[in-house]
Amino acid sequence: MTSTSLDLGQVLLQRLDEAGQCSEPGPGVTRLFCSPQHREVLDIIADWMRAAGLTPELDAAGNLVGRCARALAGEPTLIMGSHQDTVMEGGKYDGMLGVALPILALEQLRREGCELPYGVEVVAFGDEEGTRFQSTLIGSRALAGNFEASCLDATDAEGISVRQALEAFGGAPDAIAEVARDPDHVLGYVEVHIEQGPVLEQRDHAVGVVTALTGIERHRIQVSGKAGHAGTTPMEGRRDALVGAAEMILEANRVLHASEDFVGVVGKLEVRPNAVNVIPSQVTFTLELRSPQAEVRARGRKQILDAYTAIAERYQLELNTEQTYSAEAVDCAPRLINALTQACADGNESAELLFSGAGHDGLAMCELTDIGMLFVRCRDGLSHHPDESISAADAASATRVLMQFLRAFEA
To answer: Which sites bind Zn(2+) 2 (predicted)?
Structure first.
C-alpha cells in the first residue's frame, strides 16, 4: 500500500468489503452479537490490529481490544473504536468504519515512522445495536464501568441468554466488572462513524465534527383484546387488538410530526394469533423516541402514552407499557471538538459542526471519559440499509484527518 490519500481510501473500502462478507445470508449485512459471523469478523479485525502494531485480545464482555505497547504497559491511553454488530439487513459501514479506520490510520503512522507519545487502543465493541438481545451498549458499558448484571438475563428469540451466548463465545460474564477502565489512565474516547444523515452531503463536505449525541428511549407496548371468528363476530363490540394498536401507531406518528427536535419509530410489530380469519387478540410493538432535549422527549412521551390509554379504553383493550431502554443526550468534550476541528483545518477539510441524531457507544463511554466523534459523509444520508455507501476519497480524507489528530493530540 502506498501513502497516497486515494490508496488509503481504497484500502479502507476493501477492508470494509471483506468484513461485510461476515454476514448471515440475505440482503446487506446481518452480524449479531456472539454469532458465528461475529467470531469470523474478529479474526479479520485481529489481523488488521497486528499489522498496525496492536496486540488483540477478546475481553470478558465480547469486545476485541487492540493495544499498543504503551497501552499494554499501563501508560495513559486514548481509546478509539466502534461496534461490529449490525441491524438486520444493515450496511457495511455503520459501526465497522469506526473499527477499520483508526486501525488503518495507526498502521499508516507506523509505516511513516511516527511513534505516538501516549497509549492507544482500538475497540471493536461486541454489541451496540441491541439487535439480538434488545440490550444495547453491552461492550461500551463494560469499559465505562456501568454494566448492569441484569443484562445477562436478557434472551434472544431462541431463548438463549446473554450469559449463555457470552460463555459459548469465549467471554466471561462473571468477570465483566474487571473490564472497566480506570478513568485516571484514559485520555479520551474518539469514534469515527458515517453521518447517517444528509447534512454533509448537502454541504458537500467529506467530514464533520460532532458536538453532541441524542437522547434515546425505547418502550414495549402490549395491547390485549379478545380473539374471535372473523366471519361470525359482529363488528360492533369487537375487542380487536390490532385496530387499537394501529390507531396508537398513527397517534405516535401525529405527535412526532407536530413536535420540533423529536423523532421516533414503531419498528417492530407482533400480532397474535396472526391468522387470516381470526380477530387479533394481542399486539406487541416497540416505540422508540429520540430528542437532544430531555424535556421535549418527556413531553412527547406523555402525549403519546396518554393517548394510548384513551384509545385502549375506547376499544375495551388492556394496555401494558414498559420502558426497556433509556439514555440521555450527552455533549462531546470541547477539547476534542477543537482538536478534531483543527485536524480538519490542517488537512484542508471543512469542519462542519453537527449534532448526531443517532446513539453511539459514546452514550456509555461519556461516563468514563471525554468523548469526541468524527462523521464521514454517506451517500443520500442512508444508514441501516444494504445500500449504505461512502466514497474512497471521503474514506481517505477521514483517515488523513484522524492521523493528523493523533499526531497533534496532547496527552
So the answer is: 94, 129, 384
Task: Specify the pLDDT at position 136.
Answer: 78
Query: Is 301 annotated as a binding-site member?
Result: no
pTM value is 0.82
pLDDT the model gives residue 5: 61
CATH 3.90.550.10 fits 215-327, yes or no: no
Q: Is 385 annotated as a binding residue?
A: no
Q: Was 384 annotated as part of a binding site?
A: yes
Domain ranges in the chain are 5-214+329-408, 215-327
272 is in an annotated binding site: no
Parts of the chain with a pLDDT under 50:
1-3
The pLDDT value given to residue 41:
98
Among the listed residues 350, 333, 332, the one whose alpha carbon sits nearest the alpha carbon of residue 341 = 350
What is the CATH code of the structural domain delimited by 5-214+329-408?
Answer: 3.40.630.10
Q: Is 193 annotated as a binding residue?
A: yes
Q: Which of 293, 281, 304 is nearest to 355 (CA)?
A: 293
